[in-house]
Design brief:
Elements lengths: L19 E3 L8 E6 L4 E5 L2 E6 L7 E6 L4 H7 L2 E9 L4 E7 L6 H22 L5
Antiparallel strand pairs: 1-2, 2-3, 3-4, 5-6, 6-7
Length: 132
Amino acid sequence: QLVTGLRWNENLPGIPDKAYRYQACRDSGTFLGLGTVTGSVAIHIAFSLLYYVREAHGIVVTDVAFIPESRRGRELLGEHEAALLSVAVDSRCKLHLLPRRRSLPVWLLLLLCAGLIMATILLLQLAFPGFL
């Protein structure tokens, strides 16, 4: 219901008037691929820009499509998280590969948080003797 209420042709004040060609997400619904009339290509995830190539084609991008999440698609991706194909008016097709994002294991994150709390308590004890 929220998607049907969007007005794709309206621009917010202060945003340059650029036309975008948007394409549906891959089967997982994780990424959104965009192509612009200036030839730029972008890959977004939910709230953040992950990949951008300014004027990758130098002319209007007419279509973008993600490599499907099939067994063969995963073989083609290799070490990359996603792959976007873009086509421009000049009939050139380009492949844009999104490198795998690095993440911390949960146990390491918890260990770092515990260390930070202990360091804060020690610093407060040094700054204000008798704090505890």
